[in-house]
């Protein structure tokens, strides 16, 4: 696929969603920049993500987790097949991280291709099917997220297994 086609089929949620929220309400944000948005899909998505109560609020008045859910809502509504999330759990508490993990799994179940840039081991374990490790322009590791690969994943994320050495 050429670059232009890839761009047409892709959507990115940035690490700091404050830089991508432009509309004056959550509902307007969910269709901002989308040609002929499906209002029924917007409403259904807001309901699925627990954002209906905030539909008229300005996105900048929401908590970090709520803003992240708004960004995920837009990714669900925009109709793109490849979704890139840059550090989607940055600054979120554990409960918000778990919610975002569930939303991303839901997107994957919808047939979307998801690419996540993260250093969050817990999030990877809850969300991902593989870890592609990039270093100095090379990809030295392609590790499935399965129990047998847990030691390698812990090593990649510099996470202790809790055992004393």
Number of helices: 7
Instruction: Report the C-alpha radius of gyration, rounded.
Output: 17 Å
**What structural class do you assign from the helix and strand content?**
alpha/beta
- Shape assignment: globular
List key phrases describing it:
165 residues, alpha/beta, 3-stranded parallel sheet, single chain, Rossmann fold, two-stranded antiparallel sheet, globular
Give structural notes.
The mean pLDDT is 90. The strands form 2 sheets. This protein has a 3-stranded parallel β-sheet with strand order 1-2-3. Strands 4-5 form a two-stranded antiparallel sheet. The chain is α/β, with parallel strands linked by helices. The radius of gyration is 17 Å and the shape is globular. It has a single domain (3-128), classed as Rossmann fold, CATH 3.40.50.300. It has helices at 3-8, 26-29, 39-48, 64-77, 94-109, 121-127, 150-156, and strands at residues 10-13, 82-86, 113-117, 130-135, 138-144.
């Amino acid at each position: 696929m050429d670059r232009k086609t890839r761009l047409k089929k892709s959507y990115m949620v940035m690490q700091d969603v404050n830089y991508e929220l432009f509309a004056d309400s959550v509902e307007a944000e969910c269709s901002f920049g989308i040609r002929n948005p499906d209002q029924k899909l917007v409403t259904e998505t807001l309901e699925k993500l627990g954002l209906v109560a905030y539909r008229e609020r300005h996105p900048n008045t929401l908590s970090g987790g709520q803003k992240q859910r708004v960004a995920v809502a837009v990714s669900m509504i925009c109709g793109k097949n490849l979704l890139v999330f840059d550090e989607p759990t940055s600054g979120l508490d554990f409960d918000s991280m778990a919610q975002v993990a569930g939303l991303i799994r839901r997107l994957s179940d919808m047939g979307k291709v998801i690419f996540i840039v993260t250093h969050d081991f817990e999030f990877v374990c809850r969300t991902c099917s593989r870890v592609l490790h990039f270093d100095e322009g090379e990809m030295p590791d392609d590790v499935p997220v399965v129990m047998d690969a847990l030691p390698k994943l812990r090593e990649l994320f510099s996470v202790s297994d809790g055992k004393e050495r």
